[in-house]
Amino acid sequence: MVDPLSEVIGLLRPQAVFTKGISGAGRWGVRYGDFGHPSFAIVIEGCCRLVVDGQMELHLQAGDFVLLPTTPGFTMSGFEPVIAEFIDPHAAAAATGEVRHGRQDGPPSVRILGGYFLFDSEDAGLLVSLLPQQVHVRGVERLSVLVRLLIEEAALERSGRDLVLTRLVEILLVEALRLTQSPAAPAGLLRALGDTRLAEAIRQIHADPARAWTMAQLAKEAALSRSAFFDRFTRNVGVPPMAYLLAWRMALAKDLLRRQEIDIADVAERVGYGSASTFSTAFSRHVGQPPGRYARTTASQISAPS
């Protein structure tokens, strides 16, 4: 059975790039600016407060896992009143070794393992647009094990390291996200996949993106009327059904063009367009440049020396 969430994450090819230890003691508080990259943290021991911009305050405790798909500004602190120290997240990301906030000696009141990763794809916005801004999972040992494996692997220079890191991050993402997959989740892919009727329609889109889907056909897959399906899909996913279909087709098309394994006519056929010209028009409107130029531009970026 096709798994849409795994497909989206697999297409983005996440890569582990940074992990570190964070601790706090005494009276402490820090304010991080917007970072933009997906980040995660797991509380190893103790507890603290986390307030992400635009989200409800969280009281984190040992075993809690937090995923921030875009990592907006946030404040982290102990439970005593304090004026938070501002930290540039980009500068902090470049630092090495454990970061200690507050009192520098004695045992910490909280220890956290944190990290961030980049997507090897410019379609990160596709995943972000389908996820809640804050994912909080409590007391799941499987996530703790994955994070520990991730950190251990990142610290070693063993054969196959990059492949193992990539797979661990993919598993970490899927594991964390499916734990929050329910009708009570914020609007997005997770919430829709928690709705059995919508999930079936989404699985069909991913199983056969080249099919000339109509609203009526997708509604039938969901066993709903057209109007009920449209309203339910839009409310739960955050975008209308045909907009989701278009976004997924364009993400697949860009991935095929980046790999330069097939010509534009074949790409068009694979993502549901009857001709290269029709596909080129739709691609240009969605992406902002013709598919041929997009393929050449991405090829030059990939081949350019770092």
Structural features, described:
The protein has helices spanning 4-12, 89-94, 124-129, 141-154, 161-179, 189-193, 196-207, 215-221, 226-237, 241-259, 264-270, 276-287, 291-303, and strands spanning 14-25, 29-32, 39-52, 58-61, 65-68, 74-77, 85-87, 99-102, 110-119, 135-137. With 306 residues, the protein is an alpha+beta fold. The chain folds into 2 domains: 4-179, Sandwich (Jelly Rolls), CATH 2.60.120; 189-303, Arc Repressor Mutant, subunit A (Orthogonal Bundle), CATH 1.10.10. Strands 1, 2, 3, 4, 5, 6, 7, 8, 9 and 10 form a 10-stranded mixed sheet that branches. Helix 1 runs antiparallel to helix 5 (161-179), helix 7 (196-207) crosses helix 8 (215-221) and helix 10 crosses helix 13 (291-303).
Summarize this entry quickly.
With 306 residues, the chain is α+β, with helices and mostly antiparallel strands.
Record keyword descriptors for this entry.
alpha+beta; 10 strands; Jelly Rolls; 306 residues
Secondary-structure topology with pairs:
Blueprint: H1 4-12, E1 14-25, E2 29-32, E3 39-52, E4 58-61, E5 65-68, E6 74-77, E7 85-87, H2 89-94, E8 99-102, E9 110-119, H3 124-129, E10 135-137, H4 141-154, H5 161-179, H6 189-193, H7 196-207, H8 215-221, H9 226-237, H10 241-259, H11 264-270, H12 276-287, H13 291-303
Parallel strand pairs: 1-8, 2-7
Antiparallel strand pairs: 1-9, 2-6, 3-4, 3-5, 3-6, 3-9, 5-10
